[in-house]
User: What shape does this take?
Amino acid sequence: MTMNVYTGDLGLDDGIPRNVYALDTTEMELVAGRDGPNPPLLLEVGDVVQLPDNLGSVSFDGLLRFASLDIAYNPGGIWVLAFSMLALFALMASLLIPRRRVWVRQLEDGTIELAALARGDDAKLDDFLLTVKTRIENEIAK
Assistant: This one.
């Protein structure tokens, strides 16, 4: 372990909350460290090192290893998957199925007029109109 040593007031008596994991060293004096007057302290497990300027001693007694486990259970996950697949299927269907508008009108003399409009190019529109006209004529003939 490498350790830098600072001296000064941490400001704990000011009543201002401080971050435990980030030491504000702007108002402190570096005693031992990379840019300090003394080199940083190097400690291995079991070492005891005297701090510079008779500030005391530091011991590195050991290193405890911890495992962080995160177990989660989400019962709604299957529903999210099912509905997202349904939405994807609906999107694919809306993009792949040709959309057409068809108007049918029967005139007074009995003839049938058809008109159709396709969104985009539809090469099978004429065949579709003939199929619709044939079915309508067959229904009227019955």
User: Anything to note?
Assistant: The chain has two helices and eight strands.
